Amino acid sequence: MSDIVEKTLTALPGLFLQNQSVSGPAAAKASFSSRLGGLVRGITALTSKHEEEKLIQQELNNLKATVSAPTTTLKMMKECMVRLIYCEMLGYDASFGYIHAIKLAQQGNLLEKRVGYLAVSLFLHESHELLLLLVNTVVKDLQSTNLVEVCMALTIVSQIFPREMIPAVLPLIEDKLQHSKEIIRRKAVLALYKFYLIAPNQVQHIHIKFRKALCDRDVGVMAASLHIYLRMIKENSSAYKDLTGSFVTILKQVVGGKLPVDFNYHSVPAPWLQIQLLRILGLLGKDDQRTSELMYDVLDESLRRAELNHNVTYAILFECVHTVYSVYPKSELLEKAAKCIGRFVLSPKINLKYLGLKALTYVIQQDPTLALQHQMTIIECLDHPDPIIKREVLGEYSYLLDKETPEEVITKLYKLLRSDSISSETKAWIIAAVTKLTPQAHSSNIVERLIQEFTTSLDTCLRQHAFELKHLHENVKFMKGLLPVDKSCEDMVVDASLSFLDGFVAEELSQGAAPYKPHHQRQEEKLSQGKVLSFEPYGLSFSSSGFSGRQSPAGISLGSDISGNSTETGLKETNSLKLEGIKKLWGKEGYLPKKESKTGDETEALPVPQENIIMENVDQIITKNDQSQALTQSKEEKEKQLLASSLFVGLGSESTISLLGKADTLSHKFRRKSKVKETKSGQTTTAENVTRSSFSSSSNVTYEEDYYLDNFQDRGDKEIKKFSLNSELLDSESLTELPLIEKISNCRLSTPSLFAVNNMEVFHPPQSTAASVANEISLASSLLEETTEHMHSDLMEVCHNETISVSSYKIWKDECLLMVWSVFNKSASELKSANLEIAPAENFKITEQPGCCLPVIEAESTRNFQYSVQMEKPFTEGNLSGFINYQVMDTHSVQLEFSVNLSLLDFIRPLKISTEDFGKLWLSFANDVKQNVKMSESQAALPSTLKALQQELRLHVVDIIGNEGLLACQLLPSIPCLLHFRVHGDMLALWFRSSCSTLPDYLLYQCQKIIFHYRLLQDIEYNSLWYTVSPCCLSILCIAICIC
Amino acid sequence: MIQAILVFNNHGKPRLVRFYQRFPEEIQQQIIRETFHLVLKRDDNICNFLEGGSLIGGSDYKLIYRHYATLYFVFCVDSSESELGILDLIQVFVETLDKCFENVCELDLIFHMDKVHYILQEVVMGGMVLETNMNEIVAQIEAQNRLEKSEGGLSAAPARAVSAVKNINLPEMPRNINIGDLNIKVPNLSQFV
């Protein structure tokens, strides 16, 4: 919104000049402001570090010239600063601009000053000499009557301020502690804290003021002062014991929910404040029984209250446990805290587990039994994929020593080492732990056995550790010195920079050795070398030669769906049945024309399955399946996405795509060998063109094709030889294939018998892919059934575990938003009492659609849960959350939570009205927004732009008259919005009107996003002029004209 | 205290860099790279905390990160901060960005880099958590936005509008009207009457 206003103002002069000619300063200024965009896009388009460097250097040279030119206005300087910040962020030196940043902060108006201050705080550091120039400005701004100026000055002070100049501003900031605005007081407190950090002596005298801040009537100011107290108490806790009572009272109030609800975060009262207070209490109560007694109650209360299951509750709980263990012990509280730790350790959430283990490490010192309780979990954690968790666990083991003898622990670790279930990395950790323990062990049989076993290990890392242990073990005395008993669990100081080797390095370098390059540098070099050498033998060169020349001569596009196992042979003309001119109505997904209309494809051609015949013997299938399996697995992710989108547009499964690529390669090959008629390969390519045009995301497809091309090209020759042209075998083969088809067609609309009757050839994905993909198909096919009439979103997985996978998609029905959650049971057993519930949300009315909830989900099947959602209050962004629970084999029930984002766009529907109605409505609406967008050449065609908008935003194209386009939509339930587009040269004028004031703004933003994204994709120079007029500015202009 | 806030995309391109502790420029870049490499190799299913790289201070500092679509948000903090608390602070920051930009995406961070910094300034000030209440943060940002509006609207806009009007060729508007003449004419007319 503010964006638009800003643009409005900068655009005013341009608007008036528009009728004459857009020229002069207005155009220059507008293009100037979008140069950041140009720069960013220039950089993203580059591929190598070197090119980037060149571009940025060039940009910096331009900027250098601009900022030092006397004609540069402060406004232009503001834009320059943003670009300088960007360059500096990428690591380039922009030091020539530093002085200008300070100037901008000194001289600019509020907006320019803000950028100036930001740039200064990012560019400079506390001891930079230029910073002294800023002191006067800061002093001036601190005295300003404008709150925003004061805020900016306080922010900069807390970020960077020269230590020796503190006295100049200190009294001013102290005054601000009495300011009437709480935000000022709060920032002043933090600024003083900063002073305390860099020059504690200078703020000695204002400790009493900190106390005042602690008692401030505003919670925010009080919270800010806690930063200071935490720090001061950490340094000297005894001086602040008298404040314990106050902290306890504050925490009591917070925990008791006495704060305004504004401070709640996920219905937890001021969690960060609680954490801070608990830390302070922990420091105060350490080794001090009398002080600790004051806080037992509130700690107990905190432990009790923290029962919600949000992340932040755990944060409080963790802090609480920490405090309980650091203050003077009270058995009752310790017990409760131990229970909490159990909750952490046993939690499936990995973050909590980590913290639980971390808590265990300090708890164990006081209470080793607790660790024993959790021993199983700890051992399980040993094999966790997260190395950090593993390390925590092994730290744990060293603490266990208090209870058990080192021998016992080593034996346990040894047993672990020998089990096959843990990874070699973990084993390396364990050996390291054993090494630490060995000096304390009295007998060393096991250690010796371990050494013997692992010095011959295949794993280099393990072997190294084992050898280390071996050599240390041979010299027990040295080992004991190296790993002293009392410190065995503490981290040793390691000279990470390896400074003791410096002499050696210098010597080597002087003798001509190559200097060391860090890992990333080597990688970058390798990458850039790789770039130079790669000529991309197949991918791009092929596509350029492939499409243009090979159009179907008859002008009839014949889709060629070819099954994976039969492609090669299918292309031999002897076995294929020619179908030119015959209209086919049935394809592998069912009735074809229906799908055609749905996809809205412009081409009139129907994808017609071409006669291809399966002819292979069984072992060939098997060998090929193996190969294709490898392909499938490596590209699984890609395929999933592709599958969803391909089903959406009515194409076949991913095999179609891969196979098209395959067919194409082969036709290519055949052509070279001149064994196939030209028409044949022509058809294949046309089919591919059809596929391409109907895909929205063609880049994916291309990628996929190239991928398969590379793979199949190699194999092509070999395989062709293998195939025999035995048509009898073919018949029997196609029969044996039927059960498989049956399996897949459970989830498709067509039936095998249909194929048989029509004597059509049958297409199916290769067997191996069928299994992995079956679930996707089943999900997506159910999607197909229900969504034929309405537009819908792609299927998106919202949550999953090993048994079920929940995906959701939105169907934009005329009257409401229909949310569908597809629950797919991946397991082989049926799930009982499946129940999906959606939590009520404040902005929506959610109603469950009848007849879709069934308590049982059979094995490997999908159930849909539908909810219709209606908007009750306009909003821009919302969230629906819910959970699904089910029972596995009547034993335990499992619950999975998920959430889905909803945006206002989900409630935008086409408004089907006539041009006359449009005209009438247009005049009746008061709220309007206008904006001009520059279009690139390829976008200049209005219909294509409108079509894109129509598809993306679900608008209705009312009419296109010459260079004007009329669109209409409504926000459910019934807030209309009219959109007017006019092409004017290469400018697109957008003009939106509605009865609702926020709707045009929102739509304008969305339209811009889409148009912008299109442009970004096309990579055409970004250089736009933005003009907007809001009603209030119009009236100002009218007044201005009247006066004249 | 928060030492640094780094936002970079999946390819390690920095999108927001804010250090609250002084590091030389080239070290900053190395820290960004090092942090990226540390974070990148971590799966989504392992914990969001790790020790800082050697450049930023090693095990004294923790990196707490969250991965959103194409962006990594990494906060480097010292031992005085609570891990889970920071994790939620990142969430607050991102949700605030989302509120301010409506459906925030990487592009917003690139093209409105300065705005993102202003929002961050309201959340974290000089390495200290200033505000965690999302509504309060948004209110502050909106107050600043209003300022933009009023500053442009009251001082700049009329001036520009007038100058713009002056430049327009309006045939019906006589160009050389002198208000002085009018003043003279009026008494003349009254004399006639």
Task: Report the β-strand fraction of chain A as a percent range.
Answer: 5-15%
Mean pLDDT of chain B: 76
CATH first level of chain B: Alpha Beta
What percentage of residues of chain B falls in helices of 4 or more residues?
A: 40-55%
Walk me through this protein's architecture.
The complex is a heterodimer of chains A (1044) and B (193). By secondary structure, chain A is α+β, with helices and mostly antiparallel strands. In chain A, 56% of the residues lie in helices and 12% in strands. Chain A contains 44 helices and 19 strands. The model of chain A is unreliable at 1-33, 486-493, 530-585, 592-784 and 1016-1044 (pLDDT under 50). Chain B is an alpha+beta fold. Chain B has one domain: Beta-Lactamase (2-Layer Sandwich), CATH 3.30.450.60. In chain B, helix 2 (83-101) runs parallel beside helix 5 (134-167) and helix 4 runs antiparallel to helix 5 (134-167). The longest helix of chain B has 34 residues, at 134-167. The termini of chain B are far apart. The model of chain B is unreliable at 153-193 (pLDDT under 50). The interface between A and B is large, with 89 and 80 residues. Chain A: Residues 909-1012 form the AP-4 complex subunit epsilon-1 C-terminal domain. Chain A: It is found in: Endomembrane system. Chain A: Belongs to the adaptor complexes large subunit family. Chain A: Its main location: membrane. Chain A: It holds the Pfam family Adaptin_N.
